[in-house]
Design goal:
mainly alpha; single chain; 4 helices
């Protein structure tokens, strides 16, 4: 894992830019590729990354539970206090 929030967040931003994916897609891909679960990275999703992720989710209506498929959950890292 990463030693600091800053190094984790930098990695996520770089991956998002390289893959041309949203931050949510990048975080989901990161979890899938590394075997990390959402709870293990939740404490690293703070500050600017948290704010950018919230903004992105609102933009794409992903925070509105009525628009999510009933089988999907909102990722735990979106509940972080930021």
């Amino acid at each position: 894992m990463f030693e600091t929030e800053e190094s984790f967040q930098q990695k996520i931003y770089i991956l998002s830019q390289k893959t041309n994916q949203s931050l949510l897609e990048t975080l989901t891909q990161y979890c899938a590729e590394t075997g990390a679960d959402e709870q293990s990275i939740a404490s690293f999703v703070t500050g600017k990354l948290f704010a950018d992720l919230q903004e992105e989710c609102v933009k794409y209506n992903r925070l509105n539970k009525s628009l999510l498929p009933k089988t999907r959950k909102i990722p735990i890292f979106l509940y972080n206090n930021g």
